[in-house]
Amino acid sequence: MDTLSLLFYTFAFVLVYAGFRVITAKSPVTAVLHLVLAFASASCVWMLLQAEFLAISLVLVYVGAVMVLFLFVVMMLDINSAVVREGFWKHFPAAGLIGVLIALEMSFVLTRGFDLPIAKPMAPEVAAVPNAKALGIELFTNYLFPVQVAAVILLVGIIAAIALTLRQRKDSHFQKPAEQVRVKKADRLRVHKVAAVVEAPAAEADANNQAGGQA
Asked: Would you list the DSSP string of 97-161?
């Protein structure tokens, strides 16, 4: 067994173990952390298969953003796992049957995929280009218009989300950047001249003297 095969089986074992712990862990935080481990192991498997772009995307998007958000949400909500697990054994037979059917379908698809004829080797100039670079060339040459359309759709979604959440409420505090840019020193700083020594009024001085004499 060579080094690549050893690494593949190692990461595959860690991936299966982490996926099993995701559905069997009692703590939601533990389940989320094992899901992060599963994503990292899958990324390593994709890296061994020379799919660098997919591996980097999985780490940046899911591990770096989505799973961190899930972890914060789970820790902030303080979910009661006992309530969530109610009725687990009641629905276990149906879930097990569905799982077996999915496993059979996946094995059927995989075994049929292994019977495909061997593809012709790529040209040396194509094989020398990294996957991420080849994908960038395809996106910005042959698929430039769909990429631009997708970018516009995402921009519209971002603007719509901001517009839906931006509501004028009396109890909300917000800043106006235009006013902050035009602000001057006189608008924020006021200098008041105060006398160095202030003499006490005569009535207060007499009252203080009388109080001192009575004491």
From this structure: HHHHHHHHHHHHHHHHHHTSPPPPPPPHHHHTS-HHHHHHHHHTTTTHHHHHHHHHHHHHHHHHH
Q: Give per-residue burial for 155-175: e unless 16+ CB within 10 Å, then b.
A: eeeeeeeeeeeeeeeeeeeee
A 10 A CB-CB count for 79 gives 14
Q: Is the distance from CB of 39 to CB of 9 less than 8 angstroms?
A: no
**Amino acid residing at 96:** G
How far is Cα 144 from Cα 60, in angstroms, rounded to an integer? Answer: 23
Task: Find out whether 29 and 78 touch, Cβ atoms under 8 Å.
Answer: no
- Tell me if the pTM is above 0.70: no
Phi, psi values for residue 158, rounded to 5°: -65, -45
Q: What is the pLDDT along the chain (215 residues), one digit of tens a residue?
A: 788 888 889 999 999 999 888 888 888 888 888 988 999 999 999 888 888 888 888 888 888 888 888 878 777 776 666 666 677 778 888 888 998 998 898 888 877 765 656 555 555 555 567 777 888 888 888 888 998 999 999 999 999 888 887 766 666 677 778 888 888 877 777 777 777 766 656 665 566 666 655 55
* Start-to-end CA span in the chain (Å): 102
Instruction: Tell me the CATH number for domain 1-84.
Output: 1.20.120.1200
